[in-house]
Automatic annotation (TrEMBL):
Key words, A-Z: Initiation factor, Protein biosynthesis
Protein name: Translation initiation factor 2B subunit, eIF-2B alpha/beta/delta family
UniProt record, GO biological process: L-methionine salvage from methylthioadenosine
Matches recorded under SUPFAM superfamilies: NagB/RpiA/CoA transferase-like, Nudix
UniProt xrefs under InterPro entries: IF-2B-related, IF_2B-like_C, NagB/RpiA_transferase-like, NUDIX_hydrolase-like_dom_sf, NUDIX_hydrolase_dom
Organism (species): Halovivax ruber (strain DSM 18193 / JCM 13892 / XH-70)
GO molecular function, one term: S-methyl-5-thioribose-1-phosphate isomerase activity
Origin: domain of life: Archaea
Domain Nudix hydrolase: 14-143
Family label: Belongs to the eIF-2B alpha/beta/delta subunits family.
Gene3D superfamilies, per the entry: Nucleoside Triphosphate Pyrophosphohydrolase, Translation initiation factor eif-2b, domain 2
Record keyword NADP present: no
Pfam families reported in the protein's UniProt record: IF-2B, NUDIX
Amino acid sequence: MTTARDTADATNDEPDHVVTAFLRNRGEILVCKRSDAVGTYPGAWGGVSGFAEDEPDEQVWREIDEETGLTADEMSLVRAGRPVSVSDPEIDREWVVHPYLFDAASREIDLSEEHTEAAWIPPTALAGDDAAGASGTTERETVPKLWATYERVAPTVRSIAADDDHGAAWLSIRAMEVLRDRAGLLLRERAATADAEPDSESAVDPDGEWDELAAVGNRLLESRPSMAVLRNRVNQVMAEASTDGEASAETDTPDAGSVLEAAVDGIERAVAADADAAGRATEVVTGRLLTLSWSGTVHDAILAGEPDRVFVAASQPGREGVATAETLADATAVTLCPDAAVAHVLAEEGIDAVLVGADTILPDGRVVNKTGTRAATLAAAREDVPVYAVAASDKISTRETVNLESGDRTDVYDGDARIDVTNPTFDVTPADCVTGIVTDRGILEPADTERIAAEFRENETWS
């Protein structure tokens, strides 16, 4: 929590409402060190904050712009959390902190006079005296209850299970953040009880640490069973922690430190893999393209390439294609079309390539993606238009079958007639309808996907 209001305002008996934004980039968050220009907590580290003099949901955007120089176009709101009440008797102040989490497209910031330094750090570096009842020290002196404020917007198993707005790769990184954050807290709890007697209730139990983190890992795997990339990345973190990480001195069981290290490495590796896949796809981003739905990897590939025009199917019922079109419009010529017009566009508009994402790639090379992908690829085959699926190789499933999710029936029909409704969210495109699968490992053939799937199966034995 940070403010710029002078402490003279403390005569007000009502609590002061402030906003605190956590900006996230590549799995780390931005913290800023408060300067002497602010009235409270100079020298302490906090998020991007300020008094909520207007509606908090509006004020937080202004604070980000004023304190970091990042514009709304460079920010994406992930979630707003429940307010946190903070009482500070030392300065006789009461605060109500409104927390927000944003994804930032850039780490390049321009600090205002309210801060002297900034750093991108793992959120677990904030956990201290107010974290889960543990006592200890943070790596930086922070404003009161900064970790508790972050926890209100941090990813959880529940938020991952309920998220219908983001893609599988994005959610897989959030899953690894859940493991990282929990492992970091367990390490801090261990540090707080380092002097406890071995047989006391507060003594460290490495077996307990691993059991707790294994339970979190299994809940993450169950949260989105159809997302191969989430399964693969969680399994790799846990497998590396159980085989490569250092076990506790008292037991052969891997501990929280092993999971923390593996999760941090996994996040960095995942971000790099997604970026590498997008980079390789720029080789086919030329001429007139057609895409659909939302894929962050395809989006980044198009921005990095030089297409003449991009046709985007609206992708009903979620209309993810509209968001794709809007975010590409400033960089290239974009034409939005109804899903039903995709075959017509391919026949009449001189499309040079179809570029789609992939929710999952099956071992035999079939591609699972947003409904409409199969129809688009079949229409492209009729017109001799090449089709490329772009995804990190982590999206290759270890399973031969796929559990296709379905949408709400009311998205199709909400009337009273006795009508059955089918509303599949994803469909499966045959391997022979895909010209190439562009990944961080290069353009893959079906034989390559089976080999990589076998690698990922080895990671499933950790549990």
